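Handout, section 4.2: multi-component inputs.
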Amino acid sequence: MTLRTLPGFMELLPQEQIVMDRMKAVIRHTYELFGFAPLDTPVLETAEVLLSKSGGDTEKQIYEFKKGDTDLAMRFDLTVPLAKYVALYNNDLTFPFKRYQIGKVYRGERPQKGRFREFYQCDIDIIDRDELSIVYDAEVLAVIYTVFKTLKLPAFKIYLNNRKLLSGFLESLKIEEKTVEVLRLVDKIKKIPEEAFLGELADLGLAEELNRKLLNFIKIKGSNAEILEALEALQISNENFQTGLNELKTVISQAEMQGINPQNIQIDLSITRGLDYYTGTVYETFFDEHPEFGSVCSGGRYDNLSSVFMDKKFPGVGISIGLTRLFDQLKNSGLLEIEGPTPNRALIIVQSQEYQNLALDLVGKLRREDIPADVYLRDCKFKKKMEYANKIKVPYLIIIGEDEAQNHVFTVKNMKEGVQQTMSLDDLIKEIKA
Amino acid sequence: MTLRTLPGFMELLPQEQIVMDRMKAVIRHTYELFGFAPLDTPVLETAEVLLSKSGGDTEKQIYEFKKGDTDLAMRFDLTVPLAKYVALYNNDLTFPFKRYQIGKVYRGERPQKGRFREFYQCDIDIIDRDELSIVYDAEVLAVIYTVFKTLKLPAFKIYLNNRKLLSGFLESLKIEEKTVEVLRLVDKIKKIPEEAFLGELADLGLAEELNRKLLNFIKIKGSNAEILEALEALQISNENFQTGLNELKTVISQAEMQGINPQNIQIDLSITRGLDYYTGTVYETFFDEHPEFGSVCSGGRYDNLSSVFMDKKFPGVGISIGLTRLFDQLKNSGLLEIEGPTPNRALIIVQSQEYQNLALDLVGKLRREDIPADVYLRDCKFKKKMEYANKIKVPYLIIIGEDEAQNHVFTVKNMKEGVQQTMSLDDLIKEIKA
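Output:
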C-alpha cells in the first residue's frame, strides 16, 4: 500500500495547525463581532444544484460522482450553496440576512505550487430582499480591515472600485455592448503588458482611439480624493456612471466613519473581478510587500444572489478569504510565528513519580481556572522530562519535587524569560493568567 | 430543477446554527484545556488508505469515486485518517501526542430518522510510542465529564468497563477462543431480551452452564466500590483479569482525584464496544432520562493505532462525540434553548435616518469594545424597526432620536427584562458587557 496524503490537500503538523486555527478563530470572531451569523451547509449537494450556473471550467474541476441513482458533487465554493439556502429557506430567514461560513471547498484542478484541491473559504455576505443599503458596502470594507489588522499580518491595502463606473464610461464611448468582454479584459491588466492589453482590446474590434481612452481611464492614479475629483472632471452624465460615482463616494466616506485608516484603502479603477455577477462595488486586498500573493480577500456587490434558482430578487454584498492558500503563502514566506505543538500554557513535571498525584491535583486546578495545562506522565529521568518541556516550547514549566511537596509551593519557570521562581498556588495562577 | 438539500444532510436555520456552533465551541475549548492540539486532515483520501482495514459494511456505506486514475473516498470516521497521520508523520511528532479533531465524516447509508450521511465527529486521542500511562484513561473520563458539565445538558452518566476483565473471565472458563464473538454479543445485551442473549450464546456452541455464569458476570450491579469488591471476590488469578481489575481501580480512583463527581461514573461490565480494536478501558455515555438517545460519547483504549499501516507500536486511548446526532436529538426533545438568529448583543435603531451616522459611529465603538452589534439600516417606519428588533430577539436595543442626539446619550432597552434607561456611552458599554 502507498501511504500518502493526496497532492493538493493540506495536512499540517500540530505546531502549524495551531497557528492556522488561531487565524480561523480571529476571522470567525471578527465576523461575529459585525453581526454575521454562522451557516454550515453540506459539502455534498446534488450535481444539478451545484452546476446550475457554471461554465465549462467548473465542470472540469468539480468532484462529481454517482451514489445509487443520485448525481452528487462536492461544493467548489460557498456562494452557490448560499444561493440555494436563501432560495430554499427565505420564508424562514430574517432580512437583512448576514451570514458567515468558514468551510472547505473542492476543486480537482491540476495540482501545482500554491494551488489546493481542498481549501478553506471564509465568506461573509449581507443579503436583503429587493434592495440593500450601500452602507453595507462600507461595512464589508470595515470587516476586511478589522480581520487583517487583528491577524497582525504585514501592511495591506484594500483596493476598491465600482463596476458601474467602467460600464458608464463604456456607455459614454457608445461601446456598452462590449461591457462584459472589456470588464474581463481589464481584470487581466496587472498580469499583461500594456501593449498586449491594447492588442486584446483591438481584437474585440474596438477602435484604437477608444482603447487609448479606456487605458487612460483605468490608469487614473492618485489619492482617493484625487481619483474621485478626476472622475467628476470627466463630466460623464449617464445614470450608470453617476450612480457608480455616488456609491464609491459614499463607501469611501462611510469607511472613514467606521474607523478605517484611510491609508489602508485605495480606489483602483482597474479592479473589476472577472465574474459576471458583480454589479457595483468590488474589492481586492493585497499585502504591500507581497504583491506576488495575489489578492488575499476579494468580493463585491451583486444584484441578485439566487437568480438561477428563483424569481425573487435578493441583492447582496460579500467577500471571501482563501485561508488555506493565504496560510501556505505566509508560511512559505516566513511570515508566521510558529510556536510549540501544544495549546498548553503550562506543563507540570515531577522530580520523581511519588509526586505524580500532586501534579494531577494541580493540573485539575489549573484547568478549572481555564488554563490549558498538562502533566508529563512518563516515568523517566528528569533530564528527559526537561528535554520534552524544551521541545514542546510551553510558556510555563512547573516542577514538583520534595521541597515543593513539603512546603506546598511550586517551582515555576517562565521558559521565554528563563526566570525561575517558587510560589503558592494562588500566585502561580495569577502569574500564568497575566 | 429540483431545489433541495440531500436527505441525511443537516442544514440548520441561523438560530439553530448558533446553538450548534456554541456546542462545538465548548467541546473545542474543553479539548484544548486538557492540552489536546488541533488536527485537520483532508475529507478525501485514497480509497486504498481508508479501506485498508474495513469490512463489508464500511465499503457499502463509503462515498467512493474515481477522479482521473485515482480511487478516492470520503472519510467515514476520524480514526483511520489519524492512524495514517501518525504512520506518516511520527518522526515529526512529539509523544505523548494529544490531538483533537472536530470534522465532518460521511456514510452513505440508507437515510432514516436520526441517521445522518454527513455528520460531525468530535474526537480526542492520546497516543504514545510503545507504552501509554493508564492515568490517561482517567483523563479521558475527566474530559467527557467536563464537556457535558460545561454544555449544561441534562444529567448524564459515563459507563465504563475494561475489556480485559471479560476476556480474563472467559479465559478462566476456558472459552477464550470465543472472546471476539462473545464481546460482540455482550455489546448487544441492552438491546435484546436475556433469553435471546442466552440463545445466541448457545448458537456459538457454548454450554448452558457457562452461559449462565457469563450472564451473571455481566449483570453484576452495585456501586463502583461494590462491583470492584465483587470482582475481587471471584478470585480469578489469570494475568488478563488481574490487569483489567487493577486498571479499572486506577481509573476510578484517579477520576475522583481529577475532580469528577463519582455520581457521574458507573462501572458496567456489559459495556464492551463492538469494535475489535479496543483492548482495555471502554466508555459509553448516556443521559439518565434519555436512554433512547443511545451512547452520546464512546471510546476506549487500544494497543496499536496504526497496525494496518506500520510495524511500530502506538497505543492510545480516545473518545468520540457524534455531535450532529446529539444536536438533533436534543433539539427534537426540546432540550436546547434556541434564541435569536443573530450573534448580536445589541441592535441600534434610529428614530429617523438623519441619526444614522450617529448609529454607525456607535456601532463601531461597540465592536471595538468586542461587543457584537449591528445597526438596522433600512429606511422605514419606526414601528417596522421595532418589529425587526423583537423578531431577532437581541438582548439590548439601543434607540437614537432627537433627544439622544442633542444630549449625547443613548436609550437602552434590556429586551429580556423590559427595562428602558437613558445613559452615556461608558455606562452603555458597561451595561452590555455585564
